[in-house]
Specification:
By secondary structure, the chain is α+β, with helices and mostly antiparallel strands. It folds into three domains: 65-219, no CATH class; 294-425, no CATH class; 440-525, Glucose permease domain IIB (Gyrase A, domain 2). It is built from 25 helices and eight strands. The chain has helices at 2-11, 13-32, 35-38, 40-43, 46-64, 66-78, 83-107, 117-122, 127-134, 150-167, 184-221, 223-235, 242-251, 268-276, 283-290, 298-315, 321-338, 342-345, 353-372, 384-389, 400-425, 435-440, 451-458, 487-492, 514-525; strands at residues 137-140, 143-146, 257-260, 263-266, 465-470, 474-479, 497-500, 505-509. The strands form three sheets. Strands 5-6-8-7 form a four-stranded antiparallel β-sheet. A two-stranded antiparallel sheet has the order 1-2. The chain has a two-stranded antiparallel sheet with strand order 3-4. The longest helix is centred in the middle third of the chain and has 38 residues, at 184-221.
C-alpha cells in the first residue's frame, strides 16, 4: 500500500508542474491588466491587451480541464508499461464515466435545464437554495454531470491503470488475437468504467458531503487548522505522501468552497486561479483560499532553509567545506527560487529528529502566521518566483511584505537553531560524516557521460532493478533487493540522500535535475517505455 500511494502521489505531480508554470503566466497577465499597477495608458493599449487576453484564455483552458489531465496523469503514473496506451484509455474512460453519470441523472429528470437556477427558483425554491443545488452539478466536455472536479479524474485514472496493468499483456486466441495486448485495454476500459460511473452515481452525493464536512472542520478550526496542515505536510515529506495531502486542499472542499459569479468553485488553488481572472477580485475570499498555498511556504523556503544551509556549511569540518559548498549552495538556490526543498531536508531529517521536528513546527507556524497577517500569495511552489509574481507585483493588497519580514526572523531562527543543535549534538550533516564513511566514499565524482551506468551498477545491476520512476526531486525505484545498493557510489553521482522504504522500494534524492538522471538510468538499464 505504501508503494502504491507513493506512485499515486507522484502521478498527481505531472499536472501540477503544468499548473505551476501556467499559474505564473496567469499571475503576470493579471498584473499587466490591472490599471492600478501598470497604469491606465498601458491597459488601454488594445494590441498588447489582446495578446495578454489570449494568454489568459489559454491558461484558463488548462485550469478548466484539470480533471481529464489528472485522469491521464494518474493512468500514466500507475501503468507498469505501454504508458501511452494507458493515457489514451484514460481519456476514453473519463468521457464514458461522465456520460454514464449524466444518463442516470437524466433518468431522474436531472439535467442542465431542470437544474438551472432559474428553473429551480420557478419551482418554488429561494435563490440561495437554487444556487446551492445548481452548484452540485456542472458540464464537463459538454456532458452534464456531478461536480466532482479533479476527484473524478483521479478515480477514473486509478481504475484505468488497474485495467491496463491487468490486460495490456493478455494474449487472445488466434481468431481474435488482433484485439489482444494493448488493444484490449481501451476495450476493457469501455466495459469497466461505466460500472464505476453507476457506482459513483450513488456514492458521490454521500462521499462529496463527507469531503465537504472535513473542509468545514478545517475551516472552523481557524488558525490551528492551517498550522496543522503545514506541520503534517512537512512530516510527510520523507514518505512522499505530502503530495496527496497537497492535492486534497488544492482541489477538494477541504481547501475551501466559494461561490463566484453564481458558480461553485472548489479547492484552494481553483479558487485562487479563478479570482486571478477577475479585474477586481474579492480579497477576503482570496485570502481564505491562499491559506493553504504558496504563502505559507515562503518564510521557510525562501529564507529559513537557505540559512540552514549556511549553518551546515559553517559547521562542516574545515577539510570538507570545499566539498559540501557546491552541494549546499545548489540546494539553497533551488529552495530560494523554486521552493524545491528536499535536497536540503534530506541532509538532516534522518540524522537529527530534533531538527526535523523543529522544521515541521516552523512550517506549521509559517502557514498560521501568514493566515493571521492576511497575506494573499497563491500558486503552489513557495519560492521567490511566487513571492514576486503573486505577491509583490500584485501590490500591497496582498500583504506580501509580511512574508519578507517574517522570513527575516525565520532566517535567523533556522541559522542559530541549526548551528546550535549540530554542534551541541554532533549531528552528521554534510561535511561532518564519520571518518569511516569518508573512507568508503570514493573521492572522484562520477563521470557525467557514464552517470546512468554508474547508478545502475550502484543499485545492484540491471537484474536487481524492477522499475524506475521519478518525481520532482527523487528517483523512485523498485528493486529485487535493496541491500545490494552501494550508497557511497550513489553519493558520487550527486545523490543527497538514499531512503530505503522496505526490502524492495528505495528513493534516491537528487533534486531538480532528477528528470534527466532518470532518463539516463532507464537508458542504461534498457527500461524505457
Amino acid at each position: 500500500m505504501k508503494e502504491y500511494l507513493q506512485k499515486l502521489g507522484k502521478s498527481l505531480m505531472m499536472p501540477i508542474s503544468i499548473i505551476a508554470a501556467a499559474g505564473i503566466f496567469l499571475g503576470l497577465a493579471s498584473v499587466l491588466q490591472n490599471p492600478a499597477i501598470v497604469g491606465e495608458m498601458f491597459t488601454s493599449m488594445s494590441a498588447v491587451q489582446n495578446v495578454i487576453g489570449f494568454i489568459r484564455a489559454i491558461v484558463g483552458a488548462l485550469f478548466g480541464n484539470l480533471p481529464i489531465l489528472f485522469a491521464a496523469s494518474v493512468a500514466i503514473g500507475l501503468a507498469k508499461g505501454e504508458k501511452t496506451t494507458a493515457a489514451f484509455s484514460a481519456i476514453i474512460g473519463f468521457i464514458l464515466f461522465h456520460i454514464t453519470i449524466s444518463y442516470f441523472l437524466n433518468l431522474n429528470e436531472i439535467n442542465a435545464t431542470t437544474m438551472s437556477v432559474d428553473a429551480l427558483v420557478a419551482g418554488g425554491g429561494s435563490t440561495l437554495e437554487a444556487t446551492r443545488t445548481a452548484s452540485l452539478y456542472e458540464t464537463v466536455l459538454g456532458v452534464f454531470t456531478y461536480r466532482m472536479n479533479v476527484f473524478g479524474g483521479v478515480v477514473v485514472g486509478i481504475l484505468v491503470a488497474a485495467v491496463h496493468n491487468r490486460f495490456y499483456k493478455t494474449e487472445l486466441p488466434m481468431a481474435i488475437s488482433y484485439f489482444g495486448g494493448k488493444r484490449l485495454v481501451p476495450i476493457m476500459t469501455t466495459v469497466t468504467v461505466p460500472i464505476l460511473g453507476i457506482l459513483m452515481y450513488y456514492v458521490w452525493p454521500i462521499l462529496g458531503q463527507g469531503i465537504e464536512g472535513i473542509g468545514n472542520i478545517i475551516a472552523e478550526s481557524g488558525s490551528f487548522g492551517v498550522f496543522l496542515f503545514g506541520f503534517i505536510e512537512r512530516l510527510l515529506v520523507p514518505t512522499g505522501l505530502h503530495h496527496i495531502l497537497n492535492q486534497l486542499v488544492r482541489f477538494t472542499p477541504i481547501g475551501g468552497v466559494a461561490m463566484l459569479d453564481g458558480e461553485q468553485i472548489v479547492g484552494a488553488l481553483n479558487i485562487f486561479n479563478r479570482l486571478l481572472t477577475e479585474s477586481n477580485p474579492d480579497m477576503s475570499v482570496m485570502r481564505e483560499a491562499t491559506r493553504f498555498l504558496a504563502q505559507g511556504k515562503i518564510p521557510f523556503m525562501v529564507f529559513g532553509l537557505p540559512a540552514a544551509c549556511f549553518a551546515m556549511f559553517q559547521t562542516a569540518r574545515p577539510g570538507e567545506k570545499k566539498r559540501v559548498k557546491a552541494l549546499l549552495l545548489a540546494a539553497a538556490i533551488a529552495s530560494f527560487t523554486t521552493g524545491i526543498t528536499e535536497p536540503i531536508e534530506f541532509s538532516f531529517i534522518f540524522v537529527s529528529p530534533i531538527l526535523f521536528i523543529f522544521h515541521a513546527l516552523m512550517s506549521g507556524l509559517s502557514f498560521m502566521l501568514m493566515s493571521l497577517l492576511g497575506v494573499s500569495i497563491g500558486n503552489v511552489q513557495g519560492g521567490a518566483i511566487d513571492l514576486i509574481v503573486f505577491g509583490a507585483l500584485r501590490g500591497t493588497s496582498t500583504n506580501w511584505f509580511f512574508a519578507v519580514l517574517i522570513g527575516i526572523f525565520y532566517a535567523a531562527a533556522y541559522y542559530f537553531v541549526f548551528r546550535y543543535v549540530i554542534l551541541k549534538r554532533n549531528v552528521k550533516t554534510p561535511g561532518r560524516e564519520l571518518e569511516t564513511d569518508e573512507v568508503s566514499t570514493p573521492a572522484k565524482v562520477a563521470d557525467p557521460s557514464e552517470l546512468g551506468s554508474i547508478i545502475v551498477n550502484a543499485l545492484g545491476g540491471r537484474e536487481n532493478i524492477q522499475s524506475i520512476d521519478n518525481c520532482f526531486t527523487r528517483l523512485r525505484l523498485v528493486l529485487v533487493d535493496t541491500n545490494k545498493i552501494d550508497e557511497a557510489i550513489l553519493k558520487t553521482t550527486g545523490a543527497v540522500g538514499v531512503m530505503k522504504l522496505d526490502d524492495k522500494n528505495v528513493q534516491v534524492v537528487y533534486g531538480p535535475q532528477v528528470e534527466g538522471i532518470a532518463l539516463k538510468v532507464k537508458d542504461s538499464a534498457n527500461m524505457n517505455d
